[in-house]
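ligand=guanosine-5'-monophosphate
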Amino acid sequence: MMANLLVVISGPAGVGKGTIVKEIIRGDSSRSLSVSCTTRSPREGEEEGVSYFFTTKEKFSETAEAGGFLEYSEHFGNFYGTPRAFVEERLKTGDVILEIDVNGALQIKAAYPDALLIMIVPPSIDVLKERILGRKNDAGFNLEDRLSRVDFELSQRDKYDATVINDDLTVAVNEVLSIIEDKKKEMEHD
Ligand code: 5GP
């Protein structure tokens, strides 16, 4: 039997990782995307239980203390965590995809050495930064911080199992899918 895989997708803001993840899930009903808990407020169009489980800082820290998260980290003053029960349950029936930041990804790798870490990178860092500067909807975030966060995330790419450039969406999606398939074959032979 093929082993089920924990796949972590990270990448800087605006790189299009959400779109890639959706495409990966779409093609395979046994694959699920983990829905994280966050203390940040919902953005327009985000739905409870679909985009995130929105929660308070108090509830988040209670869950964290009770060991309810596989990993969690702080991002621009808000907390984000992967619900342990959901992931452990879904892993019994298929692959689970986590779209999380670099700090969370490294916690996952430490706890689950078989997890596959994929970083999505932009074809041009300058173009990505210009796009972030042009996004006016994230009021309250310091743009300098956002840009240095891009550099930090990209600086961690060597800690990932693979890097995929998101230039053409279809090419990037196929590349991620083939990295997943290769890893599953490798695990089967171990
Ligand atoms: P956003 O607020 O833009 O939705 O997400 C901010 C960052 O938090 C993104 O890099 C996203 O991938 C990351 N993130 C989302 N959920 C989780 C999680 O459960 N754990 C960690 N460590 N990062 C997360």
